[in-house]
Give the backbone structure.
Amino acid sequence: MQRENRWNRRRFLSTMAMGGGMLAATRSALGALLPQQSYFPAGVKAGDWAMIGHDLHNTRFNPYENTIAPNNVSRLKVKWTFDLAGDFIQSTPVVVGDRVYFASYDGHFYGVETQTGEMKWKMNAWNLKPGEPIADLRPPNSPTEMRGSAFYDGGRLYFGAGTGKVHSVDAATGREIWSTQLDPDVGPNQTHISSSPLVYDGKVFIGVSSGKGQFACLDAGTGAVRWRFWTVPGAPTAGGSVWTAPAIDTEQGIVYNVTGNPKAFPGGPILFTESILANDMESGELLWYQQIRPRDPYDFDIHTHPVLFEARHPTFRGDTVRRCLGAGTKAGGFHVFDRYTGEPYWRSMVTNDGLALNATAFAYNKIYLISNSSASVTSPDVDPLGYSRGERYRESLSVTVALHPYTGEVLWWTPNSASAQNTIAVGNRLLYQGLVDGTLQALHVETGEPLWSYQLPGPRRGGISISNGTLYTSCGTVGRPPYTLYAFSIDGN
């Protein structure tokens, strides 16, 4: 374990009082919500889905959803579709009140009415002046790559773009309030932002992808940079991308990030690539880190967002719980650590490859995840993927599993019809997932039994959110339309 020795007195005493992350707490029979699950940004109500992970812990669990349930999920039907996106939608739809907000890969952001799917506004992240052509502003061959999700707070949306900029826009109109260029070196294999921000206490926390990795803290009101942390400090190469959202422990004032591999491969290790990092929210001071793999020529990023959770022992009586942080890699399984010291607890290697992008959630004292596996396959006489008879190809398979958060034990295991590439969501004892073959499903959280399925007209890569009785997700992936946002509700009402 690697730990920085610059802990301040308040944090050191607090951590020692925790006893290495063990916490005694009194809970009701129904359980108690964590502070981050009961925290609502300004203007957000119970039932809304205001950020990529639903809450500051990234649990992707909406504990306030009470409309769609195991006994009526079979009645889910399409409520409306939005077909005006110019490219595929990778972001998780953010839902607040009567609006749903999402980005498309071609650089546009949308505000849509939740009841009808009517577009209320469309914002172009490339246009800094009204009416100015995109071609005049875009650096040569630079990607648009709007991959991340937004964060809603106080009538504003915050998100990053392929330009390497962070934007704050008015949620009612899409009008830009401010934008901040985190790195001017924008272009193919250079700086862009694929991650999603978290906003808390007047601060915007967001990571930078490709180029030379960093994550930064910005002032939510002005966009001014308050501090930065470089993930490849002093290295003669780039890398250490931050591909996903951070997690925040508001009680201790800690922000957690995970990083990707180096972009070049010198003989020695590069800090802080393929690492989990804990930083002080106010100053950016590094509190501890764990590097999963110091050298990597195989692109084994940590690419599931860090998730914070409390794990109850499977046999001990009482309410003693362990405060944990978990994250997964492309190859190497799901890792769990003490949230305050970085001490490793356990690792679960579910399949021979790794986890799908951001496909993790925590609810009901279980960790849910999708893990993909590659296999060499010979095409049969009739093959739905279009391969000719007898042709050899690599096919990605996957499973959805529930793990015990204290031990890593597999509680249930459900094979999938295809691999997955993006988020899952949990609400009211249902787990929602989508696969690259267009399958959209709801599974029972206690057994993994599929209770509902819908076949989208194309592959999918977008995120899932469940809010106020409606399931939101998208269809389409890179170069594979249709590019459609879907809303599902009971009987389509």
In short: Residues 393 and 427 are 37 Å apart (CA to CA). The radius of gyration is 21 Å.
